[in-house]
Amino acid sequence: MAKIDVNLSAREKNDLLAGENREQFKGIRVFNMIGSPGAGKTALLEAAASRFGSRMAVIEGDVKTDFDAERIRKNGSHAVQIETGGGCHLNAGMVQGAFKELDTDGIDVLIIENVGNLVCPSSYDLGEMAKIAVTSTPEGDEKPAKYPALFIRAEIVVINKIDLADILDYDIERVKNDCRKLNPDALIFEVSAKTGEGMDALLDHLEGTA
Ligand code: MG
Ligand code: ZN
Prior knowledge:
By secondary structure, this protein is of the alpha/beta class.
């Protein structure tokens, strides 16, 4: 960690450390995954772990517990848990500390699962290559319109639990249109981590083969 001028604002310190992270991440495809609690972020990562195995590492951010890191390890990938102890988002310093604990030999993909929260995580750069916004059908189809900051910044949008769309009267086209209005370049994936539908296209993209 670099020596940091005490007069810098919290945001400036974060951006400095995010720049250091970006240097350290060289050669690894790093994603910052952001979504509400219960959107299925960890379920998506379990599916990714089943495919990528030891080539993937996950940094898990939660307020409390290491339940999610344990779920990733059970599916064959490396995982380090950050407990924020109340903090509602990850910052670049927390990620830098967690990254030091990882053995990055043979790691091609690193996914940082942010604390479940649609609001502030999107405004902290962690040094990632791209942000992934995860939204899911039980949350309702108005979420991108209501929480635009994340969807403006996310290069990738994952609509999860599409197997429930009909039952929940979830309007996928509305969500896609709202997302495109906020970020015309965003790549949108419709998936179900549970049934596996759409997962190959998403994972190909994360791996860089699509
Ligand atoms: Mg989780
Ligand atoms: Zn926060």
